[in-house]
Amino acid sequence: xxxxxxxERRIREFVSDWRTHLRAKNRADSTIDACLDSVAMLVNYxxxxxxxxxxxxxxxxxxERYFEYLRQRPNFRTGESLSHSYISKQYRHLQQFWRWLxxxxxxxxxxxxxxxxxxxxPDNPPTVLRENELKKLLAxxxxxxxxxxxxxxxxxxxxxxxxxxGELSLLTVANPAEQERGSFDFDVDVVRVLGKGRRACDxxxxxxxxxxxxxx
Length: 216
Description:
The protein folds into two domains: 3-103, DNA polymerase, domain 1 (Orthogonal Bundle); 131-211, hpI Integrase, Chain A, CATH 1.10.443.10. A hairpin with a 4-residue loop joins strand 2 (183-185) and strand 3 (190-194). The chain has a four-stranded mixed beta sheet with strand order 1-2-3-4, with no helix packed on it. The protein has nine helices and four strands. The longest helix has 20 residues, at 29-48. The chain is an alpha+beta fold. The termini are far apart.
């Protein structure tokens, strides 16, 4: 492919190559999907607005208009405004995409994100359940059936370790062959999880949680 042919490729035509690049960097499948979705959303917007679709022609002006559109667009599921954190995440995914176009593919001379400001995300700490609320939550799992024991184990681990739901869903009993998933290790009373960036970390158990038969 000649240099001219590369420059004439529409932005969506680079997505497959970027997917390969992200996989080569050992990014998690969920991260790859989120990054590709961000590019797909931008492509749909540019197409709907009859804006430039060739990679070198998409500049800061087009991107700023897109982020303004996101600020005004409702969440299709709830009808509420898109959250600041969601818009910031879209920004960072697209910034990574253009960095790849610039550094790896050398498609653009200068990323349009150069000197652009990251969308502000207000400090909004999550709501924390009080002790009485946690007790009520655990009370919903009373019983000896599989579902009750499973739900209680899940809640106890989340309360004790603070792992992400995605990390929790991949946990298995300690097994060297399952290190890519994360595991319980009752010999040393820790949960080993594979976090963001596929970084492994240990989250210790409270002794009372370890002794709970439903956790084992």
